[in-house]
Amino acid sequence: MTNIEKIQLCQEIVDQIQRENKRPACYLEFSKEPFGVTDSHLGGVPYVPRDGEIPTDEKGSQLWLCAQINFAQMPPLDGFPDRGIFQLFASDFDADGGFGFYAGELEEQNGWRVVYHAEMDGSVTEAECAAKMAVPWEEASKKNMPRPAHKFDQKDIEEGRANLWRIPTHPLKVSFRPVVQDVIGDNDFRFDDLFAAELERRLPGADPEEFMPYKLWDETPEEREILYHIYDQMKTGGCKLGGYARFEQYDFREDDEEQAAWDTLLFQLHDDFIDFPAGEFPEMDLYLGGFGSLNILIRPKDLKNRDFSQVLGYWATS
Fold it and tell me: Among 51, 103, 222, 293, which residue's CB has the most CB atoms within a 10 Å radius?
């Protein structure tokens, strides 16, 4: 089989896999427009019920709001709530450089926390919520450093040489695009098996390693054009709810059969500023470390029961 024939067969297999593996997704857009405390937004002041408190990490330090999604404001998304507020809280940049996502196991919400308010009190004011913040967002943002030159160690932090690093740098309003059908990408832990099975059906006995997209090479402009098209259609980045997750290094679920049950992408932030669909805003406002992804995954049964206590959280850069 010639090289161009291998590439063409790879294209056919990828097309087939993606036709058969689609999931609804709602992509996000961001702006610096004003928003209320119960609206969907990144950063800033979180909604907190009058009898509630802002969550803290295992050391008692208050976490900051990374993202807040008011489900009533987004288009209906299969399996997701149609009301209530989802919140993701994280740690300040620290010695592990992981916004708290390196603390403990993936499901142990030690340095980060997911909160869900099934109901909200519309009479709660932003001033009341802001009064519960240990450090006002404006004060913390003055120290914010969106592009760290290196990872600081604990001594740097204790002696004040390390500035804060938060996502985003400045609060951003979240709006929602219409729901679309997301297709599976090659960094999903299931992709290789799907590819191998389809190749075996079409070409029994063939070695999948000889036909996988990133194992092929281009020798002519025509081959290069097809390969680049394959690469583009396998990207699964973006800031979104639902669909397929983007893992900058690898899909951690491939190492643990039990973790494969966390099959639903609850929420994702991704700072690929070349390709992901987002609104007009300075890229440093949402800096995850350079082509980084922050993924929150949930089991379908937990999402159905509105149980957000067992989600998996993962952050990595390429």
Answer: 293
Query: How far, CA to CA in Å, does 272 sit from each of 14, 145, 238, 275, 317?
Result: 22, 19, 7, 6, 10
Provide the domain limits for residue 19.
3-317
The CATH number of whichever domain residue 274 belongs to comes to 2.30.320.10
Nearest to 268 by CA among 317, 234, 314, 305: 314
pLDDT per residue, tens digit, the chain (318 aa), is 899 999 999 999 999 999 999 999 999 988 889 999 999 999 999 999 999 999 998 888 899 999 999 999 999 999 999 999 999 998 876 645 567 776 556 667 888 899 999 999 999 999 999 999 988 877 776 655 544 434 445 554 455 544 567 778 789 999 999 999 999 999 899 999 999 999 999 999 999 999 998 889 998 999 999 999 999 998 888 899 999 998 888 888 888 888 899 999 999 998 765 444 455 555 556 666 666 788 999 999 999 999 999 999 888 877
Please say whether the beta carbons of 43 and 138 come within 8 A. Answer: no
Strand-pair partners of 317: 292
Distance separating alpha carbons of residues 179 and 176, to the nearest angstrom: 9
Total domain count for the chain? 1
34: cis peptide before it, omega within 30°? Answer: no
Model-level pTM? 0.87
The two structure tokens encoding residue 231: 């690469």
Angle (nearest 5°) at CA 288 between 287 and 289: 95
SS (H, E, C) 4-69: HHHHHHHHHHHHHHHHHCEEEEEEEEEECCCCCCCCCEECCCCCCCCCCCCCECCCCCECEEEEEE
What is the distance between the alpha carbons of residues 175 and 278, in angstroms, rounded to a whole number? 10
Q: Tell me which residue of 242, 237, 247 sits closest to 314, measured CA to CA.
A: 247
Torsion, Cα of 19, 250, 254, 199 (10° steps): 40
